[in-house]
Amino acid sequence: MKASYRAVITDMDGTLYSWVDYIVPALEAMVTSLQQTTGLPRIRIVQSLKEVYERYDTNEYAFAIQESSIFREYAQDFDSFNSLVITPARKAFSDCRRRFLRPYRGVLPTLRTLRARGVRIVALTDAPRSPAERRLKQLELDGLVDALYSLEGFAVPDLVDPAVKIREQEGYYRSALGLVVELPRTHEKPSPLGIQRILSDFDLAPEEVLMVGDNLKKDVAAAAAAGVQAAWAEYGTYISPEYRERLDTFSAAAVTAKNVAAETDHETYRPGATLSNFRQVLELLERGA
C-alpha cells in the first residue's frame, strides 16, 4: 500500500509565480519616475538604490529611496520629498507589480484541489516577510496557503510617510494567513532548518511531505538534507536572457542568486521529480510518497 503525502511545502518566487517578470519592469518604472521628479542621471539613481538593496539583501526593500545616499539632501524637507518624489515612485512600482505579478498557470486550481483533499500547504521562502506576505495577499494566495515561513521582515524606519506607519500598525499590509513565521538568516535554504521547523510545527514525518521549488541548489538541496522528497519546478528557470541582463542592472549578484534559479548540475542535485507545470504536483500526490 502506497504512503500518501499529508503536506506540500512550496517555494514562492519562481515556483508559484515569476518574480523576475514583475520585479524588472517595476524597478525600471520606479527609476524612470525618480529621473523625472529629480532630474538626476539614471546611472546615479540605479547605483544608489543598488547599494541599499545589497545592504538589505533584497530588491524589494520598500524604503530604499529615502535611505539611498543621493537623496539625503532632499530629506531635510521630508514632506515635500515624500509628496513629490517618493509617492510617485512608489506608485509606479506598485502599478507594475499589480500588472505583471501573476501566478503561473495551474497554480490556483492546483492549490484549491490540494486544500479540498485536506493536504496542508506551507509556503517556505527566502524572501523577507514583508514583500513575501504582500505578494501572497495581492495574488489572493493567502486564502489557499495554510502558513508562510519567510526570513525576518523589515522594521518601518523613522523617516517615512506617517500614513505608512498608520497602515502598518493597523495591519493593512498583512495577509489573511493564520500563521506567519519569521525565520532567522541561519534558516535560509539550502539549510534544512526551515523545512525541519515546518515538520515540527505541523507534526509531520519527512516521508509525508513533498517539497516543490525551482532552485536545485537551494530548494532541492534543502529537501534532501531534511529527508523530504523534492519536485523541481523546472518551469521556473525559463527566464529570457534579456530579463536576466536587465535585472543585473539593478540587482546585486547575491540577491539575483537568491531569487533567480540557475540550470545547474543534475548529478549533484537530483530531484525526485521534474515539473513542467505546477499541476503535476497532483500527479505526484496520486502516486504517493
Summary, kept brief:
This protein has 289 residues and is an alpha/beta fold. Helix content is 47%, strand content 12%.
Number of strands: 7
Q: Helix-strand pattern, N to C?
A: EHHHHHEHEHEHEHEHHEH
Gyration radius, rounded:
20 Å
Strand order of the largest sheet: 4-3-2-1-5-6-7
Could you give the distance between the termini? 11 Å
Uncertain segments are: none
Please report which band the strand proportion falls in: under 5%, 5-15%, 15-25%, 25-35%, 35-45% or over 45%.
5-15%
Query: SS-based structural class?
Result: alpha/beta
DSSP helix count? 12
Helical residues, percent: 40-55%
Q: How much is the average pLDDT?
A: 91
Report on this structure.
With 289 residues, the chain is of the alpha/beta class. It is 47% helix and 12% strand. The protein is built from twelve helices and seven strands. It has helices spanning 19-38, 42-56, 64-67, 78-100, 107-116, 129-138, 162-169, 193-201, 216-226, 241-250, 253-259, 280-287; strands at residues 7-10, 120-128, 147-151, 179-183, 209-213, 229-233, 273-275. The radius of gyration is 20 Å and the shape is elongated.
Could you name the key traits of this structure?
289 residues, alpha/beta, 12 helices
Secondary structure topology:
Elements: E1 7-10, H1 19-38, H2 42-56, H3 64-67, H4 78-100, H5 107-116, E2 120-128, H6 129-138, E3 147-151, H7 162-169, E4 179-183, H8 193-201, E5 209-213, H9 216-226, E6 229-233, H10 241-250, H11 253-259, E7 273-275, H12 280-287
